[in-house]
Structures are given as structure tokens and as C-alpha cells.
Amino acid sequence: MTKITGTKNAAPVVILDRDGTIIADKNYLARAEQVELLPNAAAGLRQMQRAGCRLLVATNQSGIGRGYFTVADYEKTAARLAAMLADEGVRLDGVYYCPHSPADGCACRKPRAGLVERAAREWRFAWRDCVVIGDKPSDIELGKNIGARLSIIIGAEKGAADAAVADLVEAAAVIES
Q1: Nearest residue to 94 (alpha-carbon basis) of 19, 11, 15
Q2: Does the active-site annotation cover 87?
Q3: pLDDT above 50: residue 7
Q4: How far, in Å, CA of 112 to CA of 61, rounded?
Q5: pLDDT per position as a tens digit, 138-151
Q6: Element of type H or E holding 88
Q7: Residue pair 151/139 in contact by the 8 Å Cβ criterion
Q8: Which is the catalytic residue, given 19, 73, 129, 139?
Q9: Cis ω on the peptide bond leading into residue 111 (within 30° of 0)?
Q10: DSSP state of 38
């Protein structure tokens, strides 16, 4: 296993949100056939991969905890996403999800750091060396909570983010600069 960190000469680990960042947000996506890549998502992820970035997904999936869909349903959507990305020449290095509802108060629900903590243990990277990309303030808050070196928001105003971009191709350009 290669250790990739955000040191001066190494590409960072990129922590990506799923819904609204890589795929269209379908509001409690429960069916694999509903998975739809966002425009430029695969191209941006390929660009990050070519730059040596490790691509990890951290996603809240409270539909499981709310009873809207099952873990098996989630796994089918995750497998469909992986297959669609593979068709585009992209491989996600890891996918981490929180199945809890907001009322559960768990440590893994973003903006808390539980998912990143688990990923960091498995992939051996320092939180401060990663880049967090998402479409919601909670994604940016996650980046701030872990001391990420860069937080990028997609399709929204900059707010607390370090950068605001239209899509993952623009996010890849920010990371490379």
C-alpha cells in the first residue's frame, strides 16, 4: 500500500461527497438504476487520479437509518456507481458511508470526523494532508473540523470553503494549482 499524503511533492488524499458532487442528488437514492453521473464528474476524477490523488468517498446515507431503503439497496447503488466510473476509467480507492439518521448523534455522520478517521486509519494519511470536496456546507464543515489543507464546494457560493467551483474538473484544477 503506497502512502499518499499532501506533502509538498505528493498528491493529496481527496475526500469526496457522493450525492451532488459525483452523482446527481436524487433525495434518498434507493435504486441503482437512478445513479446518474454529474457532467464532468468522471473527467475530473480521472484528472485527480492522473495527478496521483487517492480518491475516497465519505457520504451520509440517512435513508438507511430512516427506513427509506436498506443497506442492500445502498450497496447496489454503490456497485452501480463503481461500474459506471470504471467504464470511464476511474477507480475509487474507498467508499465510507454513515447509515444513521441525524437524530442518532453518531460520530460518523458528516460534519463529524468518524468516516475520515476510519479512512485515515485504513489508508494511513494525516487529516491535514487531505482535500475535502462536496456540495453542502456540512462537507466544508467536515474539512474545517479535520483541519484539511483545502476544502472545495461544488455548485454553491464559497462561504467557508477555500474554493468554489462548478464541477470536478474545476476542482481538479484547483488541487493541481
Answers
A1: 15
A2: no
A3: no
A4: 14
A5: 999 999 999 999 99
A6: none
A7: yes
A8: 19
A9: yes
A10: P
Fold (CATH) for 13-176: Rossmann fold (3.40.50)
Residues counted in the chain: 177
CA atoms within 13 Å, Cβ hemisphere of 39: 2
| 113-73-26-87 Cα dihedral, nearest 10 degrees | 90
Q: How far lies 130's CA from each of 2, 46, 81, 119, 145, in Å?
A: 15, 17, 23, 11, 12
Round to whole Å and give the CA distance between 152 and 1. 27
Contacts for 70-77: CB closer than 8 Å, 24+ residues apart: 71/99, 73/30, 73/31, 74/99, 76/31, 76/32, 77/29, 77/30, 77/31, 77/32, 77/34, 77/35
| Closest to 46 (Cα-Cα) out of 26, 22, 77 | 22
Annotated catalytic residue 17: yes
pLDDT in tens, 60-109: 999 999 999 999 999 999 999 999 999 999 999 999 999 999 999 999 99
Task: Print burial letters for 66-79: b (CB count within 10 Å at least 16), e (below 16).
Answer: eeebeeebbebbbe
Cα atoms in the 13 Å half-sphere on the side-chain side of 159: 18
Amino acid at 173: A
